[in-house]
Design a protein that fits this description.
Number of domains: 1
Bound molecules: adenosine monophosphate, magnesium ion
Number of strands: 13
Strand order of the largest sheet: 1-6-8-13-12-11-10-9
CATH architecture: 2-Layer Sandwich
Structural class: alpha+beta
CATH class: Alpha Beta
Strand content: 15-25%
Order of helices and strands: HHEEEEEHEEEHHEHHEEEHHEH
CATH topology: BirA Bifunctional Protein, domain 2
Distance between the termini: 32 Å
């Protein structure tokens, strides 16, 4: 199990002098390589690289998600209109693949004011980046294959090309075997209780998929069986969740029902609902992989803040 980072270790992360360390520069080199590997693969597969949106009327409610722990939501007024800072581009991704290119990805900065209790988990930041993608008409299985390739190729490339950096970080990085194992959330919960994510992460050698997790309205749920066609990718060695994704809801009535069930305001998802009502919202599947969490794992770092030159650790606002 990964131990929590001490307050002393965390305060040293926020010093800008850390940028001079050879360790920080090795992490940044590895991150550059991994971003190149992943974006090259996606571009070769015909994905369009879209630039991010930061301020919008509509963003991910993040609610209800088992991992929800938001302390504050940022809303500002611009041009007389209230907008929110981006928590995830899920709504934008759905609309884009419905009306425009059918395969897209974004390196999307997300602002989530996580509870300050998460300062020492080693996994949480209040600003982070997702490699967020969506594909029209894709299914869960397509996403498994795609992300298995992205993860495996990235690791293979780092092992091949970044030997001195891995050595400097004392990281013995294992090349995972694909396909990854798939578990259902309920079976893990039965076996390990509510800490199933941590347990399965601690005992696995390779990343594993977990499916059927009750959460936000936009993930597809079969109303007859109750099953959610969504998934998380859990990293081994105690590093935990690195990706969440799903096949998506596209039917107007179902979306309406779920918004009501979750106590969300229709008005916040007006465009999505309008498109669904006109049957213009395409079925799709997608996922977002947390870049800093993935790099933390590849580099074998204790705290995710070590990935960032300017750490965004919950509860700690640095000078820069
Ligand atoms: P979500 O859809 O909310 O699960 O977010 C997608 C991915 O972004 C997660 O699987 C994580 O890898 C990453 N992520 C989510 N929240 C945070 C956070 N507070 N700090 C760092 N990475 C995060
Ligand atoms: Mg998640």
């Amino acid at each position: 199990m990964k131990s929590q980072t001490s307050l002393y270790e965390i305060s040293s992360l926020t010093s800008v002098m850390r940028i001079r360390d050879s360790k920080t520069s090795a992490v940044l080199k590895i991150q550059s390589r991994v971003l190149k590997t992943m974006t090259d693969i996606l571009l070769a597969k015909g994905f369009q690289w879209v630039l991010p949106v930061i301020l919008a009327k509509s963003t991910d409610p993040l609610w209800p998600d088992p991992g929800y722990s938001i302390e504050d939501r940022i809303e500002v007024e611009i041009y007389g209109t209230r907008v929110k800072t981006m928590q995830s581009m899920i709504v934008h991704k759905r609309i884009l693949v419905s009306l425009g290119p059918e395969k897209i990805f974004i390196l999307s900065p997300n602002i989530r004011i996580e509870s300050r209790k998460r300062m020492t988990t080693g996994k949480h930041l209040y600003e982070f980046t997702q490699l967020d993608l969506e594909v029209a008409y894709a299914k869960m299985k397509d996403m498994f294959t795609l992300f298995e390739e992205l993860v495996k190729e990235s690791i293979e490339d780092v092992r091949r090309e970044m030997h001195p950096e891995l050595e400097l970080l004392s990281r013995d990085l294992r090349i995972p075997t694909v396909p990854f194992k798939v578990y259902k959330r309920a079976e893990l919960e039965k076996e390990y209780g509510e800490d199933w994510e941590e347990e399965i992460s601690n005992i696995s050698k390779d990343p594993v998929w977990v499916t059927d997790i009750p959460r936000q309205f936009y993930d597809f749920q079969d109303f007859e069986t109750g099953e959610w066609r969504n998934y998380d990718l859990i990293l081994p060695e105690g590093y935990g969740e690195v990706l969440s994704g799903a096949e998506r809801e596209y039917e107007y009535e179902k979306i309406l029902k779920k918004l009501e069930r979750d106590g969300l305001r229709r008005d916040d998802y007006k465009l999505l609902l309008d498109l669904a009502e006109k049957k213009l919202l395409k079925p799709s599947a997608g996922a977002g992989i947390g870049v800093e969490r993935f790099i933390r794992y590849i580099c074998g770092l204790k705290h995710i803040g070590e990935v960032q030159p300017f750490p965004r650790i919950p509860g700690l606002v640095p000078e820069l």
